[in-house]
Amino acid sequence: MSKAPAKNEIELQLSETHFFQLLDLIYLGNWMVTACSGVEDEHAQEYTDVEKQMFSHAEPFLEKGPFHTLNSEIMFTEEHEDSLQDIIGEYDNEVFWEALAYRMAKRDVIEQIGPIKEIKMKFLCKFSIEKWIIYESLRQMELNE
Fold first, then answer.
1. CA–CA separation, 77 vs 67, rounded Å?
2. DSSP string covering 52-121, please?
3. How many CA atoms lie within 13 A of 108 on its CB side?
């Protein structure tokens, strides 16, 4: 008979594959939290503690999963971390180009309407600025036809 979870605890029934995928997601999420703030941040440390706790449940899979131990802690092998870094690299690339496009559009707005109006534009949401840029682009296209 299985032990019932303590109050405020949950018990999950996962396949081995889903457990490995859950650990991938936990690793990726913790990477995002600690990438900029560092593990010294109290909030980030809480996530790191959860990550360690979840990885501790991978002990039965040390032989067949993408895991190894270091200083008594279970973690992904370097090869598996590299495969997850590929996902992070794709994300970083997408975010870079999105941010670049937004900054270039904002620069164009400042060039077209001037710095005084740009100060007023700061109070508008990003979506409104993008709508204005599209509107102005379409208007310019109509004028040039």
1. 5
2. HHHHHTTGGGTTTSSEEEETTEEEE-HHHHHHHHHHHHHHHHHHHHHHHHHHHHHHHHHHHHHHHHHHHH
3. 13
> What pTM was computed for the model?
0.67
d(CA 18, CA 23): 9
Element (DSSP H or E) covering residue 70: strand 67-70
108's tokens: 């164009």
Alpha carbon distances (Å) from 32 to 29, 52, 77, 100: 5, 16, 19, 20
pLDDT tens digit at each of 145 positions of the chain:
456 666 778 888 999 999 999 999 999 999 988 887 766 777 888 899 999 999 999 999 988 889 999 999 999 999 999 999 999 999 999 999 988 988 888 788 777 776 655 555 555 555 566 676 776 777 776 777 6
